[in-house]
Write a structure and sequence with these properties.
The complex is a heterodimer of chains A (162) and B (259). Chain A is mainly α and 162 residues long. Chain A has a single domain, classed as Rossmann fold (3-Layer(aba) Sandwich). Chain A has six helices and two strands; from the N terminus they run H-H-H-E-H-H-E-H. Chain A is globular. Chain B has 259 residues and is an alpha/beta fold. Chain B has one domain: P-loop containing nucleotide triphosphate hydrolases (Rossmann fold). In chain B, 47% of the residues lie in helices and 10% in strands. Chain B contains nine helices and five strands; from the N terminus they run αβαβααβααβααβα. In chain B, strands 2-3-1-4-5 form a five-stranded parallel β-sheet, sandwiched between helices. In chain B, helix 4 runs antiparallel to helix 5. The termini of chain B are far apart. The chains are: A mainly alpha (162), B alpha/beta (259). At the A-B interface, helix 1 and helix 3 of A face helix 1, helix 4 and helix 6 of B.
């Protein structure tokens, strides 16, 4: 519970200082993780699904939300290749599912991924298959973003001509 | 645009007075059950300068003499958050949302580490302020009332809530006499005016109104805090004794046993 609330506090602070002002100035804000991370992670930790959604109801709804999806095995392999030790909370070791960090990570992140799959439908997240090469992913990502920006642009032109 | 349109909770969610004492107001902390916990939760609410800590100290002694185990818990006193809240207040970087969220984090920490374990072990928990303080302070700052009630939906509805009510004039005199005004107690963050006294007055008046509107919603037992300390204490003891007798009656055969 406190884990969830501390993240929400941090989020509220960044939202009001770093997200809303540039949006008002008409800039594009790229958010590395957003409320969906909290929905997936906190629910996997046992916090009530509805409660955490209501908690974040003050957040601005993103114009575009992209989810980079990988199977659990790929996630474990990538993390282990990158660094020696998994972080305590990242591995969900606070939950007491397993004393083994890798095993605990697999169980915890498995639950997190299940939650993300639920979010894809609930919030209409755009999914990018993150198993492919970085170049491929970036191409897909750019296409999604530019399609979105063009749509916005068209809307604006329609508004102006109306 | 907010996510409200996606979640859209019904009006009866979150903390409200319709909940059973000793149970969660709303969506539970699913990993912590409260079933069959023998302890009692008693909250003493009220603005600054109503004598909450004096009354609680006297209550504690009285209850302990009768053989009850007593645990006290107080606003922003969690080990996890207390230093952070002090730091954030001293640097004036809080906004109305982070203000409420820090309070909620502090409360959640005390709920999990102090209140729930004490209730499980059969203690009487005396809470110096409760979630109503956050509801009142958030409310006067313009935070959405339903949102705060949902936020604190994980709280436990106390068995008894005493509200020590005071009028604006007495409150101001008592605070000035005791220690003077500080930035947050004066609501200076709300930019009600440059004059700290006027701001203090306007802020405390708004708080009193907010508490007043919650009295009915959350079944406060309202006590006039302008009376003498021992008169208020007698009234508290009378009501608490009645409640404890009533709740002990069904379990009468085991009432005499200890350990």
């Amino acid at each position: 519970m406190t884990f969830s609330l501390l993240h929400a506090t941090d989020f509220a602070d960044r939202l009001l200082y770093n997200v809303i002002p540039p949006l008002k100035a008409g800039m594009i804000v790229l958010a590395d993780r957003y409320t969906y991370t909290a929905f997936a992670r906190d629910t996997a930790r046992g916090v009530d699904r509805r409660w955490v959604r209501e908690l974040y109801s003050f957040a601005v709804k993103p114009d575009l939300a992209v989810y980079f999806r990988v199977p659990i095995d790929v996630a474990v392999d990538r993390l282990l290749a990158r660094r020696v030790k998994l972080k305590f909370y990242e591995a969900g070791l606070d939950m007491g599912w397993s004393a083994n960090a890798v095993e605990s990570f697999r169980i915890f992140q498995g639950k997190v991924l299940d939650e993300y799959d639920r979010l894809v439908d609930e919030y209409g997240l755009s999914v990018v298959n993150a198993v492919g090469s970085i170049t491929d992913q970036q191409r897909i990502f750019r296409r999604l973003v530019s399609q979105h920006l063009e749509m916005e642009h068209d809307d604006e032109r329609l508004d102006e001509s109306a | 645009m907010t996510m409200n349109d996606l979640t859209n909770p019904p009006d009866d969610t979150g903390a409200n007075g319709a909940r059973k004492p000793g149970q969660y107001y709303s969506y539970a902390v699913p990993y912590l059950s409260l079933d069959g916990y023998p302890g009692k939760l008693i909250a003493i609410e009220g603005t600054d300068g109503v004598g909450r800590s004096t009354q609680i100290a006297l209550l504690r002694e009285w209850l302990e003499v009768q053989g009850y185990g007593v645990v006290e818990t107080g606003w922003t006193r969690s080990e996890l958050m207390s230093p952070t809240i002090d730091l954030a207040k001293s640097s004036n970087t809080l906004n109305k949302l982070t203000f409420v969220l820090l309070y909620a984090t502090d409360f959640a920490d005390r709920l999990e580490k102090e209140i729930i374990p004490a209730l499980k072990a059969g203690f009487i928990v005396l809470s110096d302020r409760y979630i109503f303080t956050a509801l009142a302070r958030g409310g006067v700052r313009g935070v959405d009332r339903q949102w705060i009630r949902n936020l604190f939906g994980f709280a436990i509805a106390p068995h008894l809530v005493f509200y020590l009510r005071i009028d604006e004039k007495t409150l101001i005199r008592r605070v000035l006499q005791a220690r003077g005004m500080d930035y947050w107690e004066s609501g200076m963050d709300m930019k009600l005016g440059d004059d700290i006294y006027e701001s203090f007055r306007a802020y405390q008046r708004a708080l009193l109104k907010e508490y007043g509107s919650m009295a009915e919603e959350f079944n406060f037992r309202v006590l006039d805090a302008r009376r003498k300390v021992d008169v208020i204490q007698d009234e508290l003891r009378r009501q608490i004794a009645a409640f404890l007798t009533e709740s002990a009656t069904p379990a009468a055969p085991v009432a005499g046993k200890i350990d």
